[in-house]
Amino acid sequence: MKISTIPFDITCYSKLHERFQYLFEEALINEICKSSTLRVFKEDDLILDIGEKISMIPLVVSGSVKVMREDEEGRELLLYYLEVGDTCAVSMTCCTKPSKSIIKAIAETEAEILFIPNEKMEAWIVNYASWRSYVLDSYNVRLNELFDAIDNLAFNNMEERLYKYLRDKVMVTKMSRLNITHFQIATDLNSSRVVISRLMKKLENEGLVIQYRNYVEVKEFM
Asked: Rounded to whole angstroms, what are the CA distances from 19 to 23, 137, 139?
């Protein structure tokens, strides 16, 4: 897999300033520019794998990323999405000591991601109030999303989980037309293709989705 790395120049600085001026003060944006690496990932590229050593904190500049868990038999489950301005709280928790990833991160769409060295996190927490707030808010948001994922598994049936999955995917990708197969959906929801195909037909009969040969549309967003 070939991953593009973008050297920092005035264009990159302008992009970061535009995207993150609502989050960080200018001095911190300057520090991010000096110490970070900006990489571009294509849709479905693997960004971080389970067991991989974590040495950087990711910050999404554009696009979206899905965060997955995987069991010992290789079955996957979607936990949550990361969008512009988001970071992965799991990566942050690994900053204080050498750790290996317990999650898998995959580009949901083409994405630009900043990778910030772990050692910068502690220094910036001391020096920048905006970074302290960002770290605490990120932990809170990701924790709430994990609770939502647990609630979804525990209290919703598969049809409800499927429709929530389709709605979330539309909102993340900003497209009502989803180029996705039943097998891909089954993988993300830790189900079987047969079950997903049956439930997709049921959602179609209920007037919630329209299925075509190579894509699905969610009528609520058309």
From this structure: 9, 17, 20
Amino acid residing at 89: A
Q: What is the pLDDT of residues 131-179, one digit of tens each?
A: 999 999 998 988 888 888 888 888 889 999 999 999 999 999 988 899 9
Tokens at 42, concatenated: 């294509």
Question: Which pTM value belongs to this model?
Answer: 0.82
Fold of 4-154: Jelly Rolls (2.60.120)
Please name the residue that has the structure tokens 């520019």. Answer: 33
| Amino acid making up residue 88 | C
Cβ(114)–Cβ(61) below 8 Å? yes
Token readout for 28 is 């911190």
CATH of domain 156-221: 1.10.10.10
